[in-house]
Each structure stands twice: as C-alpha cells, then as structure tokens.
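S., here's the first fold you wanted:
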Amino acid sequence: METRKQVLGEEHPDSLTSMGNLASTYYNQGRWKEAQELEELVLETRKRVLGEEHPDSLTGMVNLASTYCRQGRLEEAEVLEVLVMETRKRVLGKEHLDSLAAMANLAVTYSKRGRSKEAEELEVLVMETKKRVLGEEHPDSLTTMANLALTFHEQGRWKEAEELQVLVMKTEKRVLGEEHPDSLTSMANLAATYKYQGRWKEAEGLEELVMETRKRVLGEKHPDSLTSMGNLAVTYCSQGRLKEAVKVMVPVIKARMRVFGEELRTCLGAWPT
C-alpha cells in the first residue's frame, strides 16, 4: 500500500485496492475502527473519482456497511445497503448475482434491527432465485438458506429454523469441509436453535466442537473464537455447571479487557465476584 501510494498516487485504483485489502485484514482481525477508517477513505475517493454507480464504489459501500454492522451501527449500514441494492438492480438486473448479494446483505441488517418480516420476504426471494440459477449446493445458495433460518429463529419458529440449519450444515460440511468458517458458523447457529428448545446436550456438543476448531484454526484471541467460548459458557451456566462456565469465560473477559480497556473494566466492576 505505501509503495503504491508513493509511486502511483493515493487516488490510483491500485493504491485504493491495496487500502481495501488492508482494511479487509483489519476486519478479519476484529479491528473494526481501523477497518472503518480505511474503508471510508477508499469509498469517498472512489465515489469522487469513479462515480457512485461504479462497481468499485458499490463494493466499497458493501465493505463499509459490513463494518458498520460489526460496530452495531445498523442504521448507517442499512442506508448504504439500500443504495447498493437499488443501484445494482437498476444497472445489472434483479437476478444478477451482485444484485442478489445486495438483497441478502440488506435482509441480514433488517433481521438485526428486528424487522423480521421484511428480512424474510427478501431472503425467500433471494434463496429461490439462487437455487434456480446456481443450484441448491452452491455456497451462495447455502448462505441465503442459513440467513432465512436465522430469521425463522428470531421469529420463534424453531422447527423451521432447525430443518434449514441441519440441511445447510450437512451440505457445507460435505462440500466445504468441517473446518470451513461457513460450516462452523452453521454449527454454531444450529446450537443456538437447540438451546432455545432446551436441548442443552446437543447444543453443548456442537459448541465445544466449534470452539476447539476455531481456537486451533484462528487462534484463541480471534473474535470468533471468543464468541464461541462465550456461547459455550452460557450453555454450561444454563445447566448449572458454573465452575466450567467460569473456566471458559475468564479468558474471554481478559481478552475483551485487552481490546476495550478501561471502558469494559468499568462495566464489569458491577459484577459480583
């Protein structure tokens, strides 16, 4: 990135691509603020140089919206995602894969904001189109099925959620492998559905497998590993296994303190010892 900026200039497409790649690495490390700052700079430059409807500008909006979602800034993410979706549908057509991806991203944000009916309508449309165009086992089709299952989950439709999640998980493990991030996410989602049905043992088995795999593949301090440890601790607590829960949760709290510092320490100060 630094070499390209020096040789080509900060606004050259290759320089912007390098900045975007670095932002992606920050994102994957859970360094949301650093990712956000780079993505905003890349997006503003691309919009000014290339125009708002250029594919690179739209990709920049998608990346920034994803980072906003991670930061809990859902309203800002939605604004960007609606703009991307409408532009892609108008320019590329409703069944273009980029248009469908934009619809799927917006549906996820709707779901996170509690607008489950709007999310479901988009997800069903995207799922049926992708299954018809790409096939039922294509990773994009499976991702859309998983998103629809999460919407069912949030609506309390546990059986429908479980049926979709089991199908997605089995297919991803066969097609992508058991250690693929998508397979692990599907296992974690299914475990959550089991928990809401009071099926603690089934949830625990999946969560332990996900946690150990993520710790081995991603490292113990990766955000996804920490999330898995937290999920398992909750499952232990729900079964009255408090010592096991504490053992799993202490490394999570320490890691969060290192990342968020005194702000989190203040929040935890009210916890009983």
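And the second, which I think is the more interesting of the pair:
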Amino acid sequence: MTQAEREITGETTQVRGGPGAAAQSHAGEPITSEAIRDITEGEKNVTGEARPVKGGPTAAAQSELTKGRQ
C-alpha cells in the first residue's frame, strides 16, 4: 500500500491525512471494511478524486483482505 501511495503522490514519505496514515491508525487490527473506508478517504484526500485509483492504496488493502479470507 505504501508503494501505491508513493506512485500516486511522487513522494517518498507518507502524506499527512493520506491512505498510509489512515492505515497506520488501524495498525495491529485485521483489515476490515472500516479500515478500507478510512484508507479510501485518505486516498481521495491525496488525489482529489471521487473514486480510488486503479491499483492504488485502496486496491492494495482490498487485495490483502481477499488474501486473508482465503
């Protein structure tokens, strides 16, 4: 997810209020729909887009959630 954020922002560090920061607020918790919602909101905050970016941080978190359910 961090790499996806870097690709979107071009920054090497997390963006304040971005998806990485949102994910860290859920550190130690299983990935849940609430965590994904927070990551999505952080992604929207960074990109200014209404929808998550294809292959972005939200997609990465959703992929991990899917893997965890298998």
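Why I say that: The chain has one domain: 2-69. The chain has four helices and no strands.

Talk tomorrow,
H.
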